[in-house]
Automatic annotation (TrEMBL):
The protein's name: Tagatose-6-phosphate kinase
GO annotation, biological process: carbohydrate catabolic process; D-tagatose 6-phosphate catabolic process; lactose metabolic process; small molecule metabolic process
Lineage: Bacteria, Bacillati, Bacillota, Bacilli, Bacillales
EC number(s) from the headed UniProt entry: 2.7.1.144
Organism whose genome encodes this protein: Halalkalibacter okhensis
Location of the Carbohydrate kinase PfkB domain: 19-285
GO molecular function, one term: ATP binding
Enzyme class per UniProt: transferase
Family in the record: Belongs to the carbohydrate kinase PfkB family. LacC subfamily. Belongs to the carbohydrate kinase pfkB family.
Amino acid sequence: MIYTVTLNPALDYFVEVERVNFGVVNRSNYDYKAPGGKGINVSRVLKRLGHQSEALGFIGGFTGDYIKTVVEKEDIKTNFVQVAGDTRINIKIKSESESEINGVSPDITDEHLEQLQKQLAVLNEGDALVLAGSVPATIPSEIYEVLCKSARTRKADVFIDSSGEAMKKVLESQPTFIKPNHHELGELFSVEINEPKEAIPYVQELIGKGIQYVLVSFAGDGAILGTKDQILFANTPKGEVKNSVGAGDSVVAGFIAANQEKVSLEDAFKFAVATGSATAFSKGFADRDQVESLMKEINIRELERDE
């Protein structure tokens, strides 16, 4: 079974305005609401790829009810821990440029964390745990490290998509897979990384820590996937980017889906990159037919490793 954990979900409120003018009333041309949170996104994409998962995390209030209702309507199982406050609302403004106003997360208590850990006690060999997104301020930043260690002890695979301190602290727990973008990889090592070849020594260092797969995305410039045996590069398919929300989460979902289907490493990498691109080229999330079509445009080649 695949379990996704979203510690800091949100109701995402998308607003499109021709131009933002401060100090006056602005009227939107278009708006819509959607469940937000990286782990939730992974569950929603997995479902579109033909794989069931169970969405876990913390929700509360009317906004939390909305998220739970929408996710369950998509036939995705949920087992969220209910908290006292309202799940945050993130406002995403689409105008001349994109801007965001992220809301404040509700308090998460020790009791809430204990509930989540009890839920994850069912993990076993063959299961996959996805820990994705930011960590609320009321939760210790080492929470991913704690959850990852516990899951790895139970021989479950752990997939991480986060950044900052939460990502730094989980690395020593030997997650199965991590997916930083090139900016996040640079932050881990306090360097600037602009192109794939510059990432190679840092990917090798992460692999040396016992991480099985390190996938680094470079947006339209492709992606690299490192393992202990090789470093692969994949180009990005051509298309019009319509949606930047959830593309990275789709890469994670695509890799997990391919991994569950036990395809070759190269095909898993292609499938992951194609899934991210399919979401970027859509107004919603990727669907499988589009992913399989885009795979035909992706070529994989091996990069030389640093000695």
